[in-house]
Fold:
Amino acid sequence: MALAYSAGDARIAAHYVAEPDLKAFEAGKTVYFRQFMLVQTPKRAESIVATQAQFDKLRAGTAELQRNLAAKLEPRLAAEVENVSKAVSAAQATKIKVRIGEIVPVSIEINDSKALVYTILARTGALVEQKPEEDNTVSSTAYCFVKGKVVMLVAYRQFRSPQDLQDSRNMANAWANALFAAN
Structure:
C-alpha cells in the first residue's frame, strides 16, 4: 500500500509496522495492520528549502483546517481516495475500493515554531472483492521543520479504546522529539 500511495502527491520515505504484523506478513499470512507509520514528504516540496515564515503559515493553515475538517476536505477527498483505490487495486491485482468518512478532529498536541502535531478520528473502510470491511482509525500527524525542510510522519492505529488515541499521540510525539534530537 505504501508503494501504491507513493504514486500520488506524497513520497513515502519510510513505512513502519509492528514486529508481529511484519512476521505474519513475511510468513504469507493475511495481516490487518493494526498500527503503522508513514514518513512522507510532498513531492512538489522536495527541492524547496522553506523559511520559518513559510512553516508558520503551513502550521496556521493546518490548525485552522481542524476547525471544520470534514467540510473543507470533502471536495478534495473523494478524488484523492479514488486515486488511492486505483493504485492499491493495481498493486494488489484485485479491485479494491477505499473509503474514508466521518472525519473528526480530536486535538492539536503541539503547535510551535518547530512542529505541529494533531490527531483525528475517521471511519475508514475498503470494499475488497465485494466484501466490505469497516473500521475506526485514529491518526496523529507530525509536521516537523528541520534545517529548512518539512518532514511529515503520520501514525495510524485502529481505534478500539481511548488508549489508542494516547498511543497514536505518543508515537507521533516521540518521533518528532527523536527527529529534533538527531538534528
